[in-house]
Fold this sequence. Notes:
Layout: H1 18-21, H2 28-33, E1 35-39, H3 43-55, E2 59-63, H4 81-86, H5 90-101, E3 106-110, E4 127-130, H6 135-148, E5 152-158, E6 161-167, H7 181-192, H8 210-228, E7 239-243, E8 248-252, H9 261-264
Parallel strand pairs: 1-2, 1-4, 2-3, 4-5
Antiparallel strand pairs: 5-6, 6-7, 7-8
Amino acid sequence: MTANKVLKVGMHDEDMFDREKRIPWIKFNLLQKSKVLVVGAGALGNEVGKNLVLSGFKNISIVDMDKIVKSNLSRCALFRIEDAEKGLLKAEVLARELKKLDKTVRVSWYSKPIQELPEDFLKEFDIIFGCLDNIMARLYINSHAYYYGIPLVDGGTLGTSGKVQVVLPPRTACIECGMNKTHFKNLEQIFSCSGREDVTIYSPKLPAEITTTAVISALQVLSGIKIISKQYDSLPYNLIYYDGYRNVFEVLEVPLNSHCPNHITQPTKPKKEKKRK
């Protein structure tokens, strides 16, 4: 005779993820098994990392070469004034704070440019979140993710506007497909405008604020949950543009560019589908 299961008042409130598990299409077990890479630990990286942990992701790696400064604090909820005064590393502090949100999360961090990590570093991940503020690193992860067939969810902000682009090889265009001559001209200026031999890169400071960061990071992580849960039909296959000042969302088509080097010189090698129970 099978004993009846005892139901206790409030027992469902003991599970941190009980409410999320009630959403039928979210494959919670797949979220927990996925290996996630977050490139950039600043404003977007803070919000994306927080959203990933609170959504149930358990294996997160962070890459960022910078140290925390006081101007980061108005947009980075997980950084503290003490971190800025000590000049601590963004990646290390973000990893520390994500562990506080959920002690069972496994977080690794790397404090160096993504370009200096092993060339095959990216292929170990199931999904990549781009939280960058410069074109060079964005193009690097775009080309390598596309080559290895790894989904990339790229986010960016400028003042009260922002964008999210999902790159799902080989189904969608990549980030470089949507770039024009102006983007590449700006890229050239970054290397040349300093005029000093000992400075190779100059990156101008851009306007930013927290509400836009929160909106863009939420769209990024929601897209990531859809990818891992295999809800491909519900993904935004074009670029989502958000303008907080005008209160609008717009979807901008990004057609696959047959002349893009990621498509004509580097045929995509999709990752083998991992068997998950």
